[in-house]
Amino acid sequence: MLRIVPLDDGEEPYRSPDLGWDGVAGDLILNSLLHPTAPGDFRAEQGLATQVLICLMTDRRVEPYELRDGDVNRGWIGDSFDLGPGETPIGSRLWLLRRSALHEGIETLVEAYAAEALQPLIDQGAAVRVTATATADRPASRLTLDISLYGHDGAQSFNRKFEILWRQIDGVDRPLAR
After folding, report:
1. Is 168 buried (19+), middle (13-18) or exposed (0-12) by CB count in 10 A?
2. What is the pTM assigned to this prediction?
3. Within 13 Å of residue 70, how many CA atoms lie on the same side as its CB?
4. Where are the alpha helices (DSSP H) in the chain?
């Protein structure tokens, strides 16, 4: 997880721009030209939501034994050899499930992969607790992942549902696409 620390206490801290997710790809969000303080600039109002998107939707590099035949490892190659003390690889292993059937018990695996991906937010103090709840709708070939984060005061600071479609039959290589 990228952490940016300001060097001078007098300077305004850098705020990461917000990312939007359309089900296929993430993109930076811009303020409208009528924005009162930063017209046309990058929007930076939902830092926690952006971090959740980065954690869940970025492919995490995995060990070779976790790959199926024909799979090519994904993720930031630097995570294989350049992790500093206390750092963890970025992203999730959800991409490993793109060729899986929506079988009984896959919900548990999805929840574990999501919780693992979001652990850096706890480690860095952005949240104190994360819940990930996966619910399968097998007739619709869909799985819903409900993510909640809780702050130091115990209040819910983030809640969003993500829909993951299983389309292994038609060979779609991006199962999150709508």
Report:
1. middle
2. 0.73
3. 1
4. 47-57, 106-123
Question: What are residue 160's DSSP bridge partners?
Answer: 147
Q: What is the pLDDT of residues 86-123, one digit of tens each?
A: 777 788 898 888 777 888 899 999 999 999 999 988 98
SS3 97: helix
Closest C-alpha to 148, from 163, 132, 128: 132
**Please, what is the angle between helix 47-57 and helix 106-123, to 10°?**
130
What does the alpha-carbon distance between residue 49 and residue 54 come to, in Å, rounded to a whole number?
A: 9
- Residue 25: pLDDT above 90? no
**Is the separation of the CB atoms in 86 and 122 below 8 Å?**
no
Helix (H, G, I), strand (E, B) or coil at 121: helix
